[in-house]
Every structure is written in C-alpha cells, then in structure tokens.
Amino acid sequence: MKMGWHSNLYQRILVPLDGSGAAASILPWASLLTEPDNGTLILLHILEPDAPKTRHGEPHLTNRPAAETYLRQCQAHLAQQSLTVKPLIIPAQSPDLPEIMTQIALDEGAGLIALCTHGRGDPSRWLFGSIAQQLMSSAGLDVLALSPAGITRKPAEKLQHLLVPLDGDRGHEPALSRACTLAQHTHADLLLAYVSETLGDLDGLEAITARFSPRAFDAVLVQEREKTERYLKARAQELRGHGLEASTSILRGDPRSRLVELAASGSFDLLVLASHGHVGTDTGLVPGLAPALSLKSPIPALIVPAIIPGVH
Question: What average pLDDT does the segment 181-210 reach?
C-alpha cells in the first residue's frame, strides 16, 4: 500500500432501495466500486408501516412478497458480474429510517452506503446531519450519492476519469487516498481541482469582513490560491511518481456551482471529496459543498469522512 492508500475497493456496500427505478439507478455505480472477486452488495428494503401507495409515480412496496420480487429483479440485473448479492428486507421498528440504515450498515460490516438522493424523506436532509456525522467520523463509512441529475447517466464498464476537489487542507486528504485506490485498481486518471472564491462569491461573516477591507481580503484570497496551487501541483507530481495519471485545475468563482459545471463539462465518471458530515458551517472544503454536489452533480459523488483535528 502506498502513501496511505486503501489496499482494495469496497468489500461490502449497503444499497437502500425503496422500490423505485430511480433508487435502483445507483446499482451500476455501486458495482463499479465493489471488490471484483470478493465483493458483496447488500440490497436493503425497509418495510414502512402506513407507507404511501405510490412513490415517485411508481407503486410503493408495502409488503414482503412485493419487496422480494423487486429485489430479485435488481439482483437479476447484477447477475453478469462476479459479485455476491444479499437481499435484505427489514420491517421498520421506528419511523427514523436513516437511523435504521445506519445500524444495518454497521451490523453488516459495510464500508459504503450507496443511494440516490431523491424522494420523500430526501436523504440529503439526513446525509449531512448528526447521523451522517456519526456514520462518517465514528464509524468511518463512506457515502456514494447519486443526484436526480445523474439518474439517466449510465456508467462505463470501469472508472476512467476522477474529479477530486481539494483545498490544501490535510484533513481532506482521505478523499485523495480513496481516489488513488480507485485509480490504482481501474487505471483511471485524476484531476485535482481547486475553486478559489472571489470577493463577490463570499457570504456570511467573510462577506461582511471583505466589505470593510476589500483590498486586504482580496490579497488573502490571492495568497491562498497561490499556496493551494503549489500544493496541488506537488501532490500531482507525487502521484505521477507512483505511476498514476494526475493533473490539476485552478478555477475561480463559487465552488458549488463551478464544480457542478466542471463535472458536467468533462468526461468524468466520479467526484471524490471529503466532508465532516455537518449541515452547518463545516462540510469539508467549503460550507454546503458536499450537500450541493450530492443534489446537483450530474455524476455520482463519493463522500469520504474528513479527518477531524483531535478526533482519532
């Protein structure tokens, strides 16, 4: 293993499925990240009490026979791959579905939860809340999120181009480590990207501070951009020294919108970024970046727990 990279792909992935075609669209992507000869996809359906008759314009699964039929259909689509598929139907013991998913992931030894961010009880509402914070920081689980914008996109047979947003913070390097593992196993190339905010892109306290001393704050932004550019180039050179294809890109503007544009403009297969799991002021690279990308990116976002100072 090099530079702290993971030794393999994911061996066990939990895929929550609600019975809709939209939810099942995450399956091909989850398959790409599963260990080829020793991987297991755990297809989970939770039977909810008093569930609606339809969801996303499709009949909702309200009983075990219907859920079993649906999961068998999903399993059939995966039959051509050398993966173990484990269907799992669990009656909801509480109305808190995210908590149920979290516990099942831990019980099943899953290293990744893969899901589509859509529908009632939108996963984005809990994906970066207290449950996800525990899931990502304490349990060390990653999350693969496919937005409604990416539902119709079909993955290639293997990953080829990875987009990795970084900002020079060493706490966010677990995303780079995971991206390197994927690149090592699939021979994909990596683009290390940084989006530098301008004065007009700032909000909150930073915007107020910049308003009173725009020249000084602009100088800080320029200095930060130059420092991060040196960091990215050094990391890319280091990765090339280990036989990986790596390049860098420095953009300016709002990181949320620019990264969505970048993901849509190229032939990227996957976004890989770090997050602390909070909804509020600290979601990793910039506030709200991971939730924004999980809801708007046309390609799936693989979200890796960031390193929190003082937490081991």
Answer: 74
> Of the residues 149, 182, 210, which one is the last residue of a structural domain?
149
Name the residue type at position 220: V
d(CA 258, CA 78): 35
Range among 119-133, 153-167, 199-213 with highest mean pLDDT value: 153-167
Rounded to whole angstroms, how far apart are CA atoms 223 and 206? Answer: 16
Q: Map tokens 């940084």 to a residue.
A: 194
Assign 1 a pLDDT band (cuts: 50, 70, 90). very low
Chain mean position to CA 121: 18
For residues 19 and 128, membership in a common domain is answered with yes
Domain span including residue 55: 12-149
Final residue in a domain of this structure, among 118, 149, 180: 149
CA–CA separation, 297 and 6 (whole Å)? 25
Residue 82 lies in a domain: yes
In-domain check, residue 67: yes
Length of the chain counted residue by residue: 312
- Which residue bears the tokens 């008093």? 50
CATH of the domain at 226: 3.40.50.620
Q: Say if 310 falls within a structural domain.
A: no
pTM, 2 dp: 0.85
Judge if 180 and 298 occupy the same domain: yes
* Tokens (6 digits) for 302: 């693989």
Same domain, 144 and 215: no
Higher pLDDT, 59 or 146: 146
pLDDT number for residue 221: 67
Say if residue 198 is in the same domain as residue 275: yes
| Class of residue 37 by CB neighbours under 10 A (exposed 0-12, middle 13-18, buried 19+) | exposed
H-state helical runs in 90-152: 97-107, 124-127, 130-133
Residues in CB range of 53: below 8 A, 6 or more apart: 59, 60, 62
- Note the Cα 258 to chain centre separation in Å: 17
